[in-house]
């Protein structure tokens, strides 16, 4: 492994070639990357390019996400302040390059579903372009390590899928930020300052999901991150998020990551699961083992491994507050049985389920329905996974949580179907893949019945709790804003700026929607949430201008 050196606020940092800036800085014990308008420090939170809280300035260019930027030898990295200096260079930036792509099938996303769709569509003979936001391959579930080493069977399985996709002949472009999707279909993106204009015949959206946070006082402190962010640090960059770690929330990922970090040498002070012990619900456990005996067995084995390593796993604990203390973080839970439990750590990982990354589907007009059991929107799809918009397919968690094995089966179905719609391959028998898909879905349903991802009512949170982490809007601000023009999410947004920050409401949006229904008593529907707006991710303005110029000269 090659060593590289760069500076952070003038201090020398040594890292491994291939590491992200976030991993290199975390490994060097630095966890404060930017300072907000109100003077609060922020660091890595989502670890996957969604929250925009890890912004740093790199070689004088502000707004670089440390989790998505590779560390390089000789870089000058600086803490980003709320209003970064833009320098005195008044020259117009160079007009970026424009590349136009016209594949039969455009796959958006390079995770389990996207790679499976890529392989299936290519095997059917279609010309395929796959765009992936990440620079490290495999998506959230199969994330590969930057140095090519394999940690376990999951990573090895992912390596096989990545290899098959590479060998398929599809053009796979990484580090792409998609900022717009329109009728046509027309997809606009940026890569390294260059504009990409994609006019495919069919589109398969496989953008996955991001983690649902637990909004409590202190959830924005550096050192508090999603469980997935901690997993990326370890699986992709072999960097531990801290030395003494608490993992909390609900769902199987928490247990898995706690075990991986313990094996990596971290001290896991506590794994706190909100739901009661699964052993109190033998019938639900039995259902799980009927629908997925191997995975149910894996879950039990994980629990036993944690016990063998003397990691305390406690059920019925709901996170209620995080505070900064001299030794790091003081993490408090409310016991279901009454009272509180406090534990000290230097890092806190949280995961309370997932939110689908469905902005591109919604921009394209795909019909959604609210799923009360999952607490999020599901995309309506046909048997072949085509959405309500002809030629637009949706696979994996972006269409509603289903897990990686289901995403793979869906990718195979949608890949073949999109290729057939573009005039490649014969109609094929969906039976085997659809049977596998039904089995995976039954397993997921049984799995989530053992967990509790219900959020704390927003109105029940202390009023100084940050609700919108980008705009630093508190619960009290939101309640006061709601009082101005009650009854509507749009007016709450206009009154408070909630949801108007760089993450575009991905974290506060669902909570703001719940705040409205808590007051109106109405049920959540597909119309309860913020509508996605272009650009769906922050990108350089000259890439947008270049795309516009190229499109106008086409007309
Ligand atoms: S931690 Fe980098 S964008 Fe969220």
Give a short summary of the structure.
The protein is built from 14 helices and 30 strands. With 555 residues, it is α/β, with parallel strands linked by helices.
CATH topology of the largest domain: FAD/NAD(P)-binding domain
Backbone shape: globular
Bound molecules: FE2/S2 (inorganic) cluster
First-last Cα distance: 50 Å
CATH superfamily of the largest domain: FAD/NAD(P)-binding domain
Count of individual helical segments: 14
Strand content: 15-25%
- Counted up, domains total 4
State the helicity in percent bands.
Answer: 25-40%
Q: Which CATH class of the largest domain applies here?
A: Alpha Beta
Q: Give me the oligomer status.
A: single chain
**Weakly predicted, low-confidence segments:** none
Spatial arrangement of strands, main beta sheet: 2-1-7-5-6
Radius of gyration: 23 Å
Sheet bearing the most strands, described?
5 strands, mixed
Residue-averaged pLDDT: 93
């Amino acid at each position: 492994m090659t060593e590289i050196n760069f500076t952070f606020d003038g201090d020398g940092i040594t890292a491994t070639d291939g590491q992200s800036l976030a991993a290199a800085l975390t490994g060097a014990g630095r966890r404060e990357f930017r300072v907000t308008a109100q003077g609060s420090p922020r660091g890595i939170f989502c670890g996957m390019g969604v929250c925009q809280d890890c912004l740093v300035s790199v070689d004088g260019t502000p707004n670089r996400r440390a989790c998505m930027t590779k560390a390089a030898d000789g870089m000058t990295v600086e803490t980003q302040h709320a209003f970064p200096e833009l320098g005195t260079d008044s020259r117009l930036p160079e007009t970026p390059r424009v590349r136009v792509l016209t594949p039969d099938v455009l796959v958006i996303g390079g995770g389990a579903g996207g790679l499976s769709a890529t392989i299936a569509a290519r095997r059917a003979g279609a010309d395929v372009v796959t765009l992936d936001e990440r620079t490290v391959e495999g998506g959230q579930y199969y994330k590969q390590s930057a140095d090519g080493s394999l940690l376990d069977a999951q990573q090895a399985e992912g390596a096989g899928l990545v290899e098959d996709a590479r060998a398929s002949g599809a053009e796979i472009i990484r580090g792409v930020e998609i900022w717009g999707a329109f009728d046509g279909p027309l997809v606009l993106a940026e890569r390294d300052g260059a504009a990409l204009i994609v006019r495919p015949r069919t589109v398969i959206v496989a953008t996955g999901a991001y983690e649902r946070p637990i909004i409590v006082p202190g959830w924005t402190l550096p050192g508090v991150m999603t469980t997935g962010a901690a997993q990326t640090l370890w699986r992709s960059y072999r960097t531990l998020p801290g030395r003494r770690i608490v993992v909390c929330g609900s769902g199987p990922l928490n247990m898995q990551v706690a075990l991986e970090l313990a094996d990596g040498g971290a001290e896991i002070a506590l794994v706190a699961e909100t739901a009661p012990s699964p052993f109190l619900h033998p019938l639900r456990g039995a259902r799980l083992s009927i629908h997925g005996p191997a995975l149910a067995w894996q879950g039990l084995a994980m629990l036993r491994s944690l016990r063998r390593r003397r990691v305390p796993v406690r059920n019925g604990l709901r996170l209620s507050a995080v505070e900064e203390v001299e030794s790091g973080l003081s993490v408090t839970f409310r016991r279901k049985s009454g009272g509180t439990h406090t534990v000290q750590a230097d890092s806190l990982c949280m995961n309370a389920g997932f939110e689908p990354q469905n902005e591109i589907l919604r921009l394209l007009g795909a019909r959604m329905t609210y799923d009360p059991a999952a607490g999020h929107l599901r995309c309506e799809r046909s048997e072949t996974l085509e959405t309500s918009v002809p030629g637009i397919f949706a696979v994996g968690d972006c269409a509603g949580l289903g897990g990686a094995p289901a995403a793979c089966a869906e990718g195979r179905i949608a890949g073949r179907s999109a290729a057939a719609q573009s005039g490649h391959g014969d109609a094929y028998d969906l039976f085997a893949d659809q049977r596998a898909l039904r089995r995976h879905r039954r397993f997921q349903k049984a799995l989530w019945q053992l967990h509790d991802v219900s959020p704390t009512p927003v109105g029940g949170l202390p009023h100084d709790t940050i609700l919108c982490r980008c705009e630093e809007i508190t619960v009290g601000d939101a309640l006061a804003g709601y009082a101005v023009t009650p009854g509507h999410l749009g007016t709450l947004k206009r009154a408070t700026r909630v949801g108007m920050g760089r993450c575009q409401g991905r974290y506060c949006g669902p909570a703001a929607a719940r705040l409205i229904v808590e007051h109106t008593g109405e049920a959540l529907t597909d119309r309860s949430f913020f509508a996605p707006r272009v650009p769906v991710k922050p990108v350089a303005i000259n890439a947008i201008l270049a795309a516009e110029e190229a499109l106008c000269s086409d007309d």
